[in-house]
C-alpha cells in the first residue's frame, strides 16, 4: 500500500486512541481491531491476533511493538515508525502535563474520587479488550476450548499467566491449534 493517506489515517487513529486509553493501550484494542481489520481490511483477524500474541510474549513496551507490526503491514518501515510514535507520543505528552497538574493538587480531596472512578472504567475496558481478542482468536472449536479453559483456570486459580502462554504456545507450535 503506497497511498500516503492510508498512513495518515492509521497514524491519526492510533494517536487519537492512544490519547484516550485509560489503563494502557490494550483498553482501546477493540477499536483498533475494528479500524484495521473490519473497516479497512489492512490486516486479517488472524494476523491481528498473531501480532497481539507475539507482542505479549516479548518483554517491554508490547503495545508499541504490536502497533508497529500493524504499521509495518500497512505501510512498511515508515508505517511501523509512525505507528509506534503515534502509540507512545500523545500519551507521554498527556501524562507529563497531567502529572504536573496532579502533583500540584496532590492534597486535593477530588483526587481520591477521580482515582476511584477510573478503576471500574479501566477494568471494563480491559475486559472488553480481552473479549474482542478472544473472539478474534477463536477461529474453530479447539481454539475456543483453549480460550475457555485458560479463562476458567485464570479465574479459579492463582496460576501464573505465563503458564497459560507457554501452554498455548506449545499447542500452537505442535500444530494442535
Brief account:
With 177 residues, the chain is mainly α.
Tell me what you see in this structure.
22% of the residues are buried. The model has no long low-confidence stretch (mean pLDDT 90). This protein has seven helices and no strands. Helix 1 runs antiparallel to helix 2 (29-39) and helix 3 (45-57) packs across helix 4 (62-104). It is globular, with a radius of gyration of 18 Å. It is 79% helix and 0% strand. It has a domain at 4-105. It is mainly α and 177 residues long.
Tags for this model:
mainly alpha; globular; 177 residues; single chain
Uncertain spans = none
Helicity level: over 70%
What is the H/E order? HHHHHHH
Main beta sheet strand tally, sense and closure: none
Mean pLDDT: 90
Structural class: mainly alpha
Beginning-to-end CA distance, first to last residue: 31 Å
Total count of helical runs of at least 4 residues: 7
Q: In total, how many beta strands?
A: 0
The proportion of strand residues reads: under 5%
Radius of gyration: 18 Å
The shape, in one word, is globular
Amino acid at each position: 500500500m503506497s497511498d500516503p493517506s492510508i498512513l495518515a489515517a492509521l497514524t491519526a487513529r492510533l494517536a487519537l486512541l492512544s490519547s484516550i486509553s485509560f489503563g494502557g493501550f490494550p483498553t482501546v484494542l477493540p477499536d483498533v481491531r475494528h479500524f484495521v481489520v473490519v473497516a479497512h481490511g489492512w490486516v486479517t483477524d488472524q494476523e491481528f491476533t498473531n501480532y497481539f500474541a507475539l507482542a505479549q510474549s516479548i518483554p517491554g513496551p508490547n503495545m508499541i511493538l504490536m502497533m508497529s507490526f500493524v504499521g509495518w503491514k500497512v505501510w512498511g518501515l515508515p508505517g511501523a515508525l509512525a505507528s509506534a510514535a503515534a502509540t507512545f507520543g500523545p500519551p507521554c505528552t498527556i501524562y507529563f502535563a497531567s502529572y504536573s497538574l496532579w502533583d500540584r493538587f496532590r492534597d486535593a480531596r477530588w483526587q481520591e474520587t477521580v482515582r476511584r472512578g477510573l478503576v471500574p472504567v479501566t477494568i471494563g475496558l480491559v475486559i472488553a479488550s480481552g473479549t474482542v481478542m478472544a473472539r478474534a482468536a477463536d477461529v474453530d472449536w479447539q481454539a475456543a476450548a483453549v480460550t475457555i479453559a485458560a479463562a476458567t483456570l485464570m479465574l479459579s486459580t492463582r496460576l501464573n499467566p505465563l503458564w497459560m502462554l507457554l501452554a498455548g504456545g506449545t499447542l500452537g507450535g505442535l500444530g494442535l491449534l
